[in-house]
Amino acid sequence: MLEVNKLTKTFGSMVAVDNESFTVRPGEIMGLIGQNGAGKTTTFRMILNFITADQGDILWDGHPLTNKDYDILGYLPEERGLYPKMRVDQQISYFAQLRGMKAKDVDAQLDKWFDRFQVKGKKSDKLKDLSKGNQQKIQLITTLIHMPKLIILDEPFSGLDPVNASLLQDGINMMRDSGACIIYSSHDMANVEALSDRLIMLKNGKTVLNGTVDEIRNSYGRIKLMIESQLTRDELISFEGVEKIKQDGNRFELMLKSPEVGQTIFTAATKNGYIPEFSQQAPTLDEIFRMKVGERDE
Amino acid sequence: MNKLVIIMKQVFMKNVRSTAWIILVISPIVLLGIMVGIGHLVENSNNDPTIGVVSSSPTITKTLAKSLPATKVKNFKSQTLADKALNHKKLDAVLVVPVQNGQINAKLKIRDGGKTVSTKVIQSVLTQLQVSAQASKLNLNADQVQTLLKPAGLSTKTVAVNDGKSAIKNDKTNTSNRLIALSITVLMLVFTMSYGSMIAQEIATEKGSRIMETLLSSVDATTQFFGKLAGILLLLLVHVLLYAVIILVGWHPIMNLELVKSLVQNFDFSVLTSINGLIFIIFFIIAVLTYSVLAALTGSLVANQEQVQQAVMPISMLGLLGYIFALVAQGGDSLVVKIASYVPFVGPSVMPVRLAMSFATIGDAIISILISVIFLGLFTWFTAKAYKSNVLVYNQSGFWKSIRSTISIMRAERKKL
């Protein structure tokens, strides 16, 4: 289990991470979201011991991560890098050996991993001769082949086409089922929603969201309303508690101050009977993300 | 397997197969091979000139044929016949030797483009002939002629003055020393440069391509640093051993070549097995180690692949500085040279030269070694620390600014510990 307690890191006058706390249990996937510069990579680098936190601590199974824990780590950096002129199998073997694997065990498992990620290319190819997508897969294999217990993936979906993205999702789920703690960062909210058990949103180093996907969505309540009725735009805006309105033909999308406002609108819209659409939902993660980004800092 | 060993092995295997290293190892061998080949060709090809001699006295022709080394001598009855042969390129020169009153006034006609004819040798043989002719005219016996011809004696001694005492050196050691000094200077430059830039590139490329982050999450920076150094030094060891084997195997065939013989005839090989030889080796090792650590430091400072050349620059600058000082030291001892021979980076290439030229004593050399070793220890310690902060700093604005940010990070990290 990974516990991050009240982590703070400043660079000069800039606060990169401010009082961040979270826990990742074995078999749990945590998504870290936020804009560029929100503090995601800094968080990862503190967990990896690349930089020291100003305050707070990071515990792995109750003790601070040390050099002895390198072998249980799997890390995919945001900017990918492998040896272009080195053979793919030698490359994977080198990184796996640095994680404590034996060379012959790597050889024995390589085919399985090539199948799992559907790598197109020979094991004896030089890395630079593979396509970019396949190079990414090789990097993923180097990250996962030693079956790490703590996996940190910095923007793993960037640059992947939908087919490869779903291969990666399968891979991550497989690691979760093996009992690993997984943290990853992403810009793509669709992936985050499908994959994450829990998520954290950072904004300028501050944690603005923290919980399971359902918890976060439900904390907003059903404040999104899709409606198609006799009511005009002006009529809809005049209801108290309507914060935003978007028109698409006869259809309107409203953001409500609270779920209760929906009831008033429903009554008014159905006073003449049938209406084609009335759907009140919690906002999607993507919408929450946009709302949070747009909010001013307190 | 120990992670340091894994890194060492990988660095070694990667570079041992690289074209750059293979060229580095092979080029001197190829060069030597070409030299030896040319030597062989020169020795085996026929370069002996043919001279036509026109003389009334058969004794003169006979003596010339006997005394002129590597020269074919043909007797001609008349100058016309000899000139004809010359015009047909059958002769390289025609020597006409008329004798009048025991006085020789010879004329030599050399064909342009023919094989080289040594006029000096011909003249000395003719002089001898004239002397013996004159001697017999004056009724001198052989002993008297000998006494007459004996040159005045002059013996040469070279002394090296150290602390008011002078020590006699023989000329052979002097030449040997110069040769050794020159070889040390060049060897140090070549090895520190090539291996220094190899390390700098190795590290800079990994950092520039962001492989470094993956590596650092598997193994701590210090282990990685020493693993890389060990890998490159292993490569150097293989390089030196390879040459040692080649020299051992090829020693006799090479030394028997006339060309090599003429090069090393003044060379006293005992210098190599003396205490000086050991000190030279120690300095060589220190120099390579110090430059390797410097290379690792500068290599870890770059932000991208384009800055790799900048990382190599400080190594070349210091290396050249040492080279220049070493060249100056071969010319003579001065205060600047003296000081330089104790300064780290430069000292290991200057002190061996001073030692070889007898400007410095073994005691001086040991002091310089101590200074260099202590410096190397501290420098390695500092670099290993800096390396950890360096490899994660990506300062696009330049190489020198990276040094500043590294130092500030090191300070910040130390405060926390």
Summarize the model shown:
The complex is a heterodimer of chains A (298) and B (417). By secondary structure, chain A is an alpha/beta fold.
Number of helices of chain A: 10
Classify the secondary structure makeup of chain B into a structural class: alpha/beta
Low-confidence stretches of chain B: none
The radius of gyration of chain B is 32 Å
In the predicted model, the low-confidence regions of chain A spanning at least 5 consecutive residues are: none
Structure in words:
Chain A: Belongs to the ABC transporter superfamily. Chain A: InterPro entries: AAA+_ATPase, ABC_transporter-like_ATP-bd, ABC_transporter-like_CS, ABC_transporter_ATP-binding, DrrA1/2-like_C, P-loop_NTPase. The complex is a heterodimer of chains A (298) and B (417). Chain A is 34% helix and 29% strand. In chain A, helix 2 packs parallel to helix 4. In chain A, the strands form 3 sheets. Chain A has a 6-stranded mixed β-sheet with strand order 6-7-8-3-9-10, with helices on both faces. Chain A has a 4-stranded antiparallel β-sheet with strand order 2-1-4-5, covered by helices on one side. In chain A, a hairpin with a 2-residue loop joins strand 9 and strand 10. By secondary structure, chain A is an alpha/beta fold. Chain B has 2 domains: 50-143, abc type-2 transporter like domain (abc type-2 transporter like fold, 3-Layer(aba) Sandwich); 170-416, no CATH class. Chain B has helices at 3-16, 19-44, 58-67, 79-87, 119-137, 142-149, 171-208, 211-216, 221-255, 258-264, 270-273, 275-299, 308-331, 335-340, 347-356, 362-390, 399-416; strands at residues 50-55, 72-76, 93-97, 99-100, 103-104, 107-110, 158-162, 165-169. In chain B, the strands form 3 sheets. A 4-stranded mixed β-sheet of chain B has the order 2-1-3-6, sandwiched between helices. In chain B, helix 12 runs parallel beside helix 16. Classes of the chains: A alpha/beta (298), B alpha/beta (417). The A-B interface holds A 45, 48, 50-52, 54, 67, 70-71, 73, 75, 77, 79-84, 86, 94-95, 97-99, 142-143, 152 and B 1, 3, 6-7, 10, 14, 206, 209-220, 392, 413, 416-417.
